[in-house]
Amino acid sequence: MKVTFFGVGYVGLVQAAILADVGHHVVCVDVDQEKVDNLKKGIIPIYEPDLTPIVIENYQNGRLNFTTDAKSGVNHGEIQFIAVGTPPDEDGSADLQYVLAVAEMIATHMQGPKIIIDKSTVPVGTADKVSARVAEVLTSRGVSYAFNVVSNPEFLKEGSAVADCRRPDRIVVGTDSDTVADVLRELYAPFNRNHDRLIVMDIRSAELTKYAANCMLATKISFMNEIANLAERLGADIEAVRLGIGSDSRIGYQFIYPGCGYGGSCFPKDVQALIRTADAIGYQPEVLKSVEAVNYRQKEKLFAMISDHFSGELVGKTFALWGLSFKPNTDDMREAPSRVLMESLWAAGAKVQAYDPEAMQECQRIYGSRSDLALMETAEAALCDVDALVIVTEWQHFRAMDFDLIGDSMSEPVIFDGRNLYEPSRMRKHGITYYSIGRSM
Ligand code: UGA
């Protein structure tokens, strides 16, 4: 099938590449000429495992192409995906200007019927706005081509986006047309094997499903962080509690890891956007507001622990920081707990020696060069002459600790672990003062 994507961000690029990989003919349109030129050369703007070879191979075999020319993009696809960003407005609501600009572009250039798919995470009611905008432009052109607007949210995770796209848990299709549902069934047939993963529903329910999924996951995390904070004060161990409750299949083991708060481009933005949606219709979303409040507090937790340990005397102290990205296997630092921590440490007069396997360039881009931030070549180098080690992101190779190195680099070894990577008893055995989340020392 012939498919067009508007927007080669995370969602657009990955989904476009995977659709091309199974045989569809995909054209990606983006306003950023440099990004388009780079993609043609095989330079991918994001760090995502396994993505680069798929993009290169499908560009070379002609099934995946990139352009800034909206007109040729619109003419190419019977299916037009809108996968542009919906950044938060000043008040936290999703800003729809890019989505609606694409709707306008499609309507301006279309010469026949189109299926227009909202792939971006958009508030309930957006499909109606897209429809209205397309109809308006068609009327002003004096033409009347048939079109359908579909909600087909994306559920991929950064760091495992390729695998998530190839083996989706579900494919949610919001449409009021059986014919359109059949076209999407055909589009996604290569991913819909073994059992039917396509869930067809009305458009508004599909739009709400995306927010509900992310908000439910964020709720699980904030709930666990709340219980962790209680466990710590009650002399219990959250890791034992986690196993104890996860074994109940109604609760499950996934997404109940306590930590130093959730980050990324999705959970913080989507929880906030759903709160704004609720506010706008006069409904008080008590759970969602608490999920957000608990997360803000949790992101400040590492700094509070550090400050307590050093009795507030942080001026001139240096901290090794392992992990800058909001989670492993990505270079993304959007809403990352590391940023809240570093900014608090700097404000208190401390210095940071940071190491991250992928996000150092991104950190440099965000903060530039500053005398209280040193980006180190290795995790070991970051430990040189520091007052304590702080673990913010659970990259795999942080899991095996070199206790000799810790002993050598700090006269009184202290670790603040925001991800519970180590056993407190082993730390005690090695003479390390060890703070973690939800476990009394
Ligand atoms: C999230 C969802 O998991 C995807 O299903 C969704 O499609 C995506 O948002 C989106 O809307 O585009 P992502 O933001 O890539 O994906 O990252 P997650 O793996 O969900 O992690 C989010 C944050 O939660 C991270 O900061 C992570 O450290 C934290 N987390 C996760 C915990 O603190 N505890 C957990 O048990 C799990």
Automatic annotation (TrEMBL):
InterPro entries reported in the protein's UniProt record: 6-PGluconate_DH-like_C_sf (IPR008927), NAD(P)-bd_dom_sf (IPR036291), UDP-Glc/GDP-Man (IPR017476), UDP-Glc/GDP-Man_DH_C (IPR014027), UDP-Glc/GDP-Man_DH_C_sf (IPR036220), UDP-Glc/GDP-Man_DH_dimer (IPR014026), UDP-Glc/GDP-Man_DH_N (IPR001732), UDPglc_DH_bac (IPR028357)
Coiled-coil annotated spans: none
Entries under NCBIfam families matching the protein: NDP-sugDHase
Organism: Mariprofundus ferrooxydans PV-1
UniProt protein name: UDP-glucose 6-dehydrogenase
Pfam families: UDPG_MGDP_dh, UDPG_MGDP_dh_C, UDPG_MGDP_dh_N
Keyword NAD recorded: yes
Active site annotation, chain numbering: C266 (nucleophile)
Catalytic activity, as annotated: UDP-alpha-D-glucose + 2 NAD(+) + H2O = UDP-alpha-D-glucuronate + 2 NADH + 3 H(+)
The keyword tRNA processing is assigned to this record: no
Top-level taxon in the UniProt lineage: Bacteria
Signal sequence segment: none
GO molecular-function terms, A-Z: NAD binding; UDP-glucose 6-dehydrogenase activity
Pathway involvement of the protein, from the record: Nucleotide-sugar biosynthesis; UDP-alpha-D-glucuronate biosynthesis; UDP-alpha-D-glucuronate from UDP-alpha-D-glucose: step 1/1
UDP-glucose/GDP-mannose dehydrogenase C-terminal domain sequence ranges: 320-424
GO terms under biological process: polysaccharide biosynthetic process; UDP-glucuronate biosynthetic process
Enzyme class of the recorded protein, top EC level: oxidoreductase
Family: Belongs to the UDP-glucose/GDP-mannose dehydrogenase family.
Positions annotated to bind NAD(+): D30, K35, T86, T121, E158, K269, R334
